[in-house]
Amino acid sequence: MVRNAHSALLAGLLFLLSFSLTGCGGTKVLKDPEPLVLTESLASATDETLDATLDWVIVRDGPGTWARNADWDEYLLTISNVSEESLRITGLTVVDMQEVHAVPGTNRKELVKATKKALKRYKGSGVDVKAGRGTGTMIAAGIGVTVVGVGVGTVAALGSTLGAGAAGAGTAGAVAGGLLLIGPALAVGGVVRGMNNSAVNNEIEQRQTLLPLTLEQGTEAQADVFFPISPSPRRVVLVYSDSGGEHRLVIDTSKVLAGLHIQEADN
Fold it and tell me: Domain tally for the chain?
């Protein structure tokens, strides 16, 4: 009887470990993210020195995503130096619908903290923000992409199986077994979350473009910059410097990103 109880306990622990690895919440790097195929940029701006295009914005569980449940936005830009001298991109900000300037984040923890602060600000003003909503305007702007599946059905099925297994367990020692399982299950979940967060942070650090960024005469660079979630962004502002001093180039996003992250009211 004791051996059977131990076997059942071990099986339960192994199942919970498997469930934690595949179905737990939080941010996680996707095993096989779908490639993003860009056919046209979202918006652009130019002056006598700099040409910049906003190619795409990767949002939570949207086209181009590589992480599930991301608490940030990832801006993909192409920046070209069209002048006859070198220049430096020294700043990049996203201006949201409340005219608040968001600055880039360089790691997961920093981005999550800034996103929570922004969401609290919007909640206080009565705006219903839902991360990842409102990507239709971007897609309509001419982007070809394959959307990544999240696998919600699989998670739900695992949850149902877990419930059925608990209900079908023998009554002898059920309470004690349940108490024994709670501690290890929580510990396993914590370890998995820590591993996931570390993997996500590593990916952010590898993908990001750090400023300042130097562009020599006639050269072009692809920039990948992470921002906290910024609802319905109105513009992207690039700050750069050359021999003539500091300048700003503004990309108008008020139309192509209108409604991004905004939850539409039910009719």
Answer: 1
Domain for residue 21, yes or no? no
Percent of the chain with pLDDT over 90: 60
Cβ atoms of 80 and 103 within 8 Å: the answer is: no
The per-residue pLDDT for range 99-121, each reduced to its tens digit, is 999 999 999 999 999 999 999 99
Nearest Cα to Cα of residue 258 among 141, 105, 142: 141
Q: What is the DSSP letter of 33?
A: P
Average pLDDT, the chain: 79
pLDDT tens for each residue of 24-58:
457 899 988 888 888 889 999 999 999 999 999 99
DSSP state for residue 62 in the 8-state scheme = S
Residue spans of alpha helices (H) in the chain: 2-23, 108-124, 136-140, 152-167, 174-207
User: What pTM does this model have?
Assistant: 0.74
* Radius of gyration in angstroms for the set of CA atoms belonging to the chain, rounded to a whole number: 23
Domain that holds residue 240: 27-169+208-252
**Amino acid at the residue 249:** L
Q: Is 19 part of a structural domain of the chain?
A: no
114 within some domain: yes
Identify whether 196 is part of a domain.
Answer: no
Q: Tell me the CA distances in angstroms from 216 to 48, 80, 88, 111, one per residue in order.
A: 15, 9, 9, 30
Query: Following DSSP, what letter does each residue of 162-207 receive, concatenated?
Result: HHHHHHTS-STTHHHHHHHHHHHHHHHHHHHHHHHHHHHHHHHHHH
What does DSSP say about strands 50-58 and 43-46: parallel, antiparallel, or unpaired? antiparallel
